[in-house]
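quick one before i forget lol
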Amino acid sequence: PASIRHYAADQNGGRVPSASKPSELFASTMTTSASVGKRMPINENYPGLKRVHSNPDVYIIEQFLDDASCENLIDKAREKGTSRSPVAYAGWTEDIKELLGLAASGPVSWFAILGAWYEAQGNVEASVPSLVLHALRNYAVLFVVALVGIAGFTKFRADSLQNLRTSSSTTLDDLTHKGAKNFVLRASDLFDPASSSSKMPAASFFEAPTVINYEKEQVLAPHYDANRSADVEDANRGGQTLSTLLVYLNDVENGGTTRFGKLPAADYVRQVKGERNLNIIPRRGDALLFFPADKDGVFDERTEHEGCPAVDEKWIARIWRHTGEVPPPFGLSSDSIKKYL
């Protein structure tokens, strides 16, 4: 599947906490290895941290946000107003490059040469240089035609991806509000070790909190949060997505689960019973943490996940932690971070 947004852990699960730590109690392990490196570091002793899958690491953080903060995030999202959640065509630069390469070395070349040969038939004065010139002219025309066709295909593909996501969402970057401020503060405590070598606060690497609402039958199809082409396509928003931190803002007893289709089920109380894959039932205040790419930005395809169809209404809030600093409007302003954090 294509990536929803822009679009890891290592073979040993990155920094694996010892078995004596609470985060180890619910862990299961994926037997299939992947050639990704260690995940970004986090505060392994964060309160409520429970690892539900190893290699790649997936965590639940129980009671990450209090009820008042969850309610405030929902209220402020309603006040601001939500709109259809956007979908980005991740990897479009690689697709265009590949398609152009195939066209240039294949059909464009063949038809350019064939056209030059056909034009020379019956022309007794045709010479090798004239054939070459005709071929080059044909090649240029056909290459432009191919470029237009590829651009049209890319736009069609980008437009069709919107059907994969039917939720509505909005961004909350005003840290004067309790919910957004507490969410960013707790995320900073969780990720702070990742920024220990930098003078910038941990929140400088965050996209601003996004609140997402799923009404009945709304879904988010299987997708990735990282991007194989992040260095190019996401350069203006901090580069690769190293971690996804998702908080459930309300209890959802029916539908709306978060499913990882490439990971096995976990021995955990919020795991959907009878489901063969890791599939988490939302509970207000709990957070889901995973790593779409390793600490060096290498894409991890094992973290493919989806928001299953909602039956009861579902609200979530999300922060993406990137490789580099995330400037506004995608991230939080440095003045806001200094003043409220």
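fyi The first helix runs from residue 67 to 80.
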